[in-house]
Every structure is written in structure tokens, then in C-alpha cells.
């Protein structure tokens, strides 16, 4: 494995993972091969959709929302695949179960950290609303109050989040989990492990991008290299290259924020602040009104985007949690994994 700050380390310190999950005596049937190819082809198409024509779209909340949606879909596909190959949990190797449960805990922790940061950013919206409200009836006192609220917004946005700072350690642990357990004489196990590997790579990378966005540090980006034996490898490599390169350029330019919507708010605030610092008699009312309206629009766009993204993060949290609960329930009952997910129709899962 290697990270952006340590490019000399091999991504596969344990050797070729594809060889590890392809032992002799575990030949795939045509049906199992179709299931695996379908999963990997779908994942490849999903990754391609995250590569926009305009690179600026990568640095937006709308792109982050799409990325989180893709994670939900991939993890749901893992549960569907586990059902389609009809591999009872009782036949799972203990190492597979340990890996799945360990990863799920880490992903839940990451979701909690991301949710806390989105909530923190949205709290700044209240400070801007307070500032704009004070400017509805301009007066020297209201200008002072508006300036105070804007100063509070700046301090709030620039403050750190301890939970986000811990994401680096969690991501390191996720990288360690990419080491695939050996599969002995089990074609179905091979399919399951190879699919889980694809899901883990996509998850670790996209979570590292989110952590970089929220922390303002390119050190959290992951430069993952994958073997070209996977159908999704080329799409992933292209996505990784475009996203990492664009974010690093953004950081190297010393921009206020990586997120486009947040930077738009900051630009509006920078135009508004000098206006309300002057004497009331010298303020051009038309310029003040236009700048207040612009700040209000950009702030509302940011707040709505954060709300939508928060819902997707919560959705991913629930997907991970339901999968974990289903596995634990199946272990107790001996059922096929994901038969017991509450509110999920098995027929719907098969055709998803």
C-alpha cells in the first residue's frame, strides 16, 4: 500500500491478491463467473460516472453526493451478490467474517465523523443568516452586529473538527484490511472475496477524498494502485488520477476552501464585509442590496447542498449497519447472508 505522502511503498506488500483468491481446485462455474462479471461491470460504470467532463465539478457538494450514492449502491450490490451465489454464512471462513465486521465498524465511525462535519458546516449558515437579517434594516448598530456575525462565521468555518482528524487513522486501518484472506477450494468464496475487494477499494478511496475535503489536507488522499485483472480497474485508475490531481492543485494554490460552494460563500462575504464596515451615509444602498442578495443565494445553495449530502451519508450509514446486522443475524440462524435484512424484499434484491 502507498499513500500520497509515501509513494515508494508497494500497494501489495502481501503479493498478488488475485493469485491469493484463485487457488487450484476452485474453478468458477459459468453462472458464478456471470455474477462476478456483472458486479464488476456495474462497478466500473459507476466509477466512470464519477469522472466529470468539467474538473471543477469534482470540487462540489453535488459530486460528493453522487460519490456517496455510488458507495451505497456498491455495498447494496455486495449483499445482492452474497444472496445470488447462495453461500450460507455458515460456510463463510472466520477470516471473511472478521474482515467484514471490522470494516463495517470503521465505516460507521467514518460516517459519524462526516455527519458531524456536515452539521458543523451547516451551523455556520445560522451565523450568516443572522448577519443578513441585521442588514434588512441598515443602521450603524446593525452593521456592527452583522460584522460580528460574519467574524463568527469565519472563525467557525476555519475551526477544526477532532473527529475528522481521526479519519486518517481509520483510513490507514481500512487500507490494511485490503489484504485479502486466502480462499481454499471455494469458488463461491472466491467470488465473494473478489467482489468485497472491489467494494473496499472504492470505499477507501472515496472516503479519503471526503476526509481531504473536510480536513483541508491533501495528505489524506490515497494513491491506490490496483491490478488490471479487475474489470473496474481502468475506471478506478482514471478516477483516482483526475480527482487526486485536481485536489492537490487546489491545495497547492492556497485556496480558502476546496469545496466550490463554500468558496462561493466566502467570495460573497468578502464583498459584503467592506461595505458594512463603512459609515452608513457613505454606503451605496443598491450595492449593499445586491451583495446581500448574492450572499444569501450562495449561503442557501451551500446549506441545501450540505443537507442533501448529509442525507446520503446517513443512507450509507444505514446500508453498512443493515449489512452488519444481517450478517450477525445470519450467523445465529444459519441463513443466507442478507435474507434477514428488515424491509428488504429478496426478489427485489435479485433483480437490482
TrEMBL record:
Record localization: Membrane
Record bears the keyword Glycoprotein: no
InterPro entries per the UniProt record, alphabetical: ROH1-like
Main location: membrane
Membrane topology annotation: Single-pass membrane protein
Entry's Gene Ontology cellular component terms: membrane
Electron transport is among the record's keywords: no
Alphabetized UniProt keyword annotations: Membrane, Transmembrane, Transmembrane helix
Lineage: superkingdom: Eukaryota
Family, similarity comment: Belongs to the ROH1 family.
Protein name listed in UniProt: Protein BPS1, chloroplastic-like
